[in-house]
Each structure stands twice: as structure tokens, then as C-alpha cells.
Amino acid sequence: MPEETIRLIVTDMQGETHTLQALEGWRAMEVIRDHGLPIKAECGGAAACATCHVYVADAWLPKLYAPNEEEEDRLDEAFDVKGNSRLSCQILMEPNLDGLEVTLAPGSEP
Ligand code: FES
User: What is the pLDDT, as a whole number, of residue 1?
Assistant: First the structure.
């Protein structure tokens, strides 16, 4: 049986869109970093730095788990936070997120 394909669609700071293959259970931040796109992700995924800030396309927001208190606190410290801001290290890729669209946000550039 072929492995389930999960795609993560990332728009970079230049407005270019990249379709990345993701594996189930990986964090969106790790997928972005492993494909060589510029993302700082300074704390390595511990929800401690907010340098993995992304904007999630509105249609996808209801499919994500709501941010926990730790993520909300970090986002309070990030730049240009919007209603669709999330930390990409707190988004776990799963089959129902196939096609998830995110845009790299200010403060995430290395
Ligand atoms: S990598 Fe630091 S908060 Fe996501």
C-alpha cells in the first residue's frame, strides 16, 4: 500500500509557493526546515522562541488543534501577530492536513 501523502504548501517571504512532502507526525516547522526553506526555529520546536511563526490560510484554521497556553504566550511576543498566526513547531502533520497552506511570517527569517 502506498504511504499516505501529506503535502504542506508554504509561501516564503518573497511570495513564492513551495509544495513540500511531509511525513505523519512531523512538525510543520521540521518539514519547512528539512526542505531548506529559511526558517529560524531557534528553540528547535520547544515553543520557546516564536521564530517559527507562520500564518495559516483561513480555510485550514478549523482543522488545527487550538493553540495551548504556551503557544499563545509565545505568540504574544512575536511580530505582526494576526488572527491566523501559529507556531509551525506546534502543528503536527497528519493525513487530514494534506494540502495545509502556511505563509512564513516576519520574525521567522534566519
Ligand atoms: S521553534 Fe521555537 S517556538 Fe517553534
Answer: 40
Q: Distance of CA 51 to CAs 15, 21, 58, 67, 97, Å?
A: 19, 22, 21, 16, 22
What are the chain's domains? 6-104 (3.10.20.30)
Other Cβ atoms less than 10 A from the Cβ of 35: the count is 15
Between CA 90 and CA 74 the distance in angstroms is 11
pLDDT tens sequence across 62-98: 999 999 999 999 999 999 999 999 999 999 999 999 9
Q: Which of 52, 70, 75 to mutate to test the pocket of ligand 1 (most atoms within 8 A of CB)?
A: 52
Task: Provide mean pLDDT across the span 29-50.
Answer: 97
Residue 3 has pLDDT above 90, yes or no: no
pTM across the whole model: 0.94
User: How far is it, in rounded angstroms, from Cα 15 to Cα 73?
Assistant: 28
Q: Residue 102: CB within 6 Å of ligand 1?
A: no
